[in-house]
Amino acid sequence: MEWMIQMVAAISAAALVMVLHELPKAIVYHITSRRKVPISSVFHISQYIDLVGVLCCVATGAGFSKPYRYKIETKRQAFVIGITGLGSCLVAFLSFMLLYEHCYEGIRIQEMLFTEGARMQFTYWFLALSVVYSLSMFFMNLLPLTMFDMGLLVASASVTSYIMMIRHDMMMKLLLYVVLLLQLFPILTIHIVNRI
User: Fold this and answer.
1) How confident is the model at residue 108 (pLDDT cuts 50, 70, 90)?
2) How far apart are CA 125 and CA 14, in angstroms?
3) If DSSP codes are grouped into helix, strand and coil, which group holds residue 68?
4) What is the full DSSP assignment across 125-185?
5) Which has the closest alpha carbon to 85: 165, 173, 149?
6) pTM strictly above 0.85
């Protein structure tokens, strides 16, 4: 029963972190875009949830979201969207961290997990995993891949650098797979959380 609660909490936390990462970027895109596309298209929440990203979150502690379909018009727009993506991950991390500390300050977690009901266990795992996933997604988006926030920032700085990044995309994806397999982002996240 407990593993099922953890699995549902992990999938829920991953989906929420993905939405919190992509939704602000899509809103900023619509605000800065010259195209007049209905803003209602931004609020179809399921479009931001990547099933492979959810599986990566559950299996390795770090995942990625499905980006909104951008048609970047200017370097400034790419920069603003990239910064918004990284900022939204940090805001989500800090919010989940504060909520986690507020709810579980001074409580012996091991005792609580064995004595409390399913709802309390779900809440604990949901908040704890949301902390890990949001900061891991921040680190993930620092990788210079075209589909990540760093890719948008590189595109905003230099077209030549962006083209070089595209040429080395396969090597960077290989690096991403190694990082995921070694679970480096969750390890780094847990180390940072323990220092706070």
Assistant:
1) low
2) 12
3) coil
4) HHHHHHHHHHHHHHHHTTS--TTSHHHHHHHHH-HHHHHHHHHTHHHHHHHHHHHHHHTHH
5) 149
6) yes
